[in-house]
Amino acid sequence: MDDVATAAGVGKGTLFRAFGSRAGLIQALWARRTEPLRHAIESGPLPLGPGTEPRRRVAAILDAILVVKLDNRHLTLALEERSGGVSLYEQAQYQLVHQLLSDLLRDAGQGDESELLAHLLLAAVRADLLDHLIGGRGSSRRQLRAGIGAVVDLVLNGSGG
């Protein structure tokens, strides 16, 4: 917080009044960075926006999330760590995406398994996993994007749905 305050030319107290905590600042930065993605998912054109066939939209949303997380690795790692007692799964942004994916998976014929499958698909784009695969294992962005596509295909086509 000291470094951010110095870079912004304000006192640390000003940051805490504006954001409440380090977690609040991280949430605000993440919301700003993901606003274009959120807008595209809510009302944008195909393949992210409404009106896209559910199977195609699930793949597009996960790919877009992957790209945003790769472009913002350090911020995403900080966001997803348990801070302020709030787990990733309790964060409003996660819950909204999880619900959307659950609904799309249900529409794609996954039935009662939709909620669990949505969690499992979102686990494939967790920041700590992506950081390990890129930083620790040397995976490329291209490999990760192809892998996410393969996982979605397997879930939607290989499960009998």
- Give the percentage of residues in beta strands: under 5%
Instruction: Output the radius of gyration.
Output: 17 Å
Largest sheet report: none
Described by the principal axes of the CA atoms, the overall outline is globular
Weakly predicted, low-confidence segments: none
Q: What number of domains?
A: 1
What does the model show?
By secondary structure, the chain is mainly α. The protein has one domain (45-157). Helix content is 72%, strand content 0%. It contains nine helices and no strands. α4 runs antiparallel to α9 (141-157) and α5 (73-80) packs across α8 (127-136). It starts with a helix and ends with a helix.
In short:
The chain has 161 residues and is mainly alpha-helical. The chain has nine helices and no strands. It is globular.
